[in-house]
Design brief:
This protein is α/β, with parallel strands linked by helices. The chain has eleven helices and ten strands. The chain is globular and about 50 Å long. The protein binds D-glutamic acid.
Length: 261
């Protein structure tokens, strides 16, 4: 492996940048290729079959082109549905993103946890398993939001989130029976930590948010322990469809190069 071999992050859109950020803090020299499946966005309203067919095929092409040292599926929807298939198809280490229910259960005092993800993620048996293993004494309320994904994309393209729209989505958790007791919200979609400052201003005092980003960053450090890095890295942003909207978004983000897959 060469020093220039990047870490490849993959998401449907900009959400995975919430995983890149803590990784850059721990590994500032790591070359990063960030791939957004703009042609397939959004994932959260797609079927399991569509995601299971699309994600391993795309990652196969990305790995062939960029020869990464490590692949990070920085998307809960893709990970909860296709992680096993991606691992089976690639001969490079793959890190997935799964809802941070375990740390949420460790943090909760009220024993009522909210899981905010995409519709596709919150219905996965994977979420049932995590709940049974790590939060069996908690009430775990789930809400799938497509609107928050769009609001996060718009924010990174420069549009300030509308508090009323965010409040409506948060109500999807708090208005459920028992929801008033939620004291931890799992951001189970990588887009949602990008909206955490705005959402934190709208939830009752004492409610905390948790997501998988920092844990994934530590896992990446562990998996690349002992590897060497280039003196200077050029980060690449890749879109599966590179149109006007993607070019506009790219100018708002901090990458040396923008490419189409
Ligand atoms: N960022 C993704 C996730 O973590 C999916 C967003 C979408 O495309 O709906 O689930």
């Amino acid at each position: 492996m060469t020093d220039n071999a990047p870490i490849l992050f993959f998401d449907s859109g900009v959400g995975g940048l919430s995983v890149v950020a803590p990784t850059r803090v721990l590994l500032p020299q790591a070359p990063i290729v960030y791939a957004a499946d703009s042609a397939g966005f959004p994932y959260g309203t797609r079927s399991e079959a569509e995601i299971a067919a699309r994600v391993p095929a795309l990652l196969g092409r990305l790995v062939e082109r960029y020869r990464p040292r490590l692949v990070v599926i920085a998307c809960n929807t893709a990970s909860t549905i296709a992680l096993a298939a991606v691992r089976a198809a690639l001969d490079v280490a793959v890190v997935g993103t799964v809802p941070a229910i375990k740390p949420a259960a460790a943090m909760s005092r009220s024993r009522v946890i909210g899981v905010l993800g995409t519709a596709a993620t919150v219905r996965q048996p994977y979420v049932d398993d995590l709940t049974a293993r790590f939060a069996s004494d908690c009430t775990v309320l789930r809400y799938g939001s497509a609107a928050l994904v769009e609001i996060a994309e718009a924010k990174l393209a420069g549009a300030a989130p509308d508090p009323a729209a965010l409040a409506r989505e948060l109500d999807g958790l708090f208005a459920q029976p028992g929801g008033a007791k939620i004291d931890v919200i799992v951001n189970a979609c990588t887009h949602f930590p990008l909206l955490e400052p705005e959402m934190a201003a709208l939830v009752p005092a004492g409610v905390r948010f948790v997501d998988g980003g920092p844990g994934i960053a530590r896992r990446i450090v562990h998996l690349t322990d002992g590897q060497t890095w280039p003196a200077r890295a050029e980060d690449v942003l890749v879109f599966t469809r590179l149109g006007e909207a993607e070019r506009r978004l790219a100018t708002a983000l901090d990458f040396a190069r923008v490419e189409a897959l």
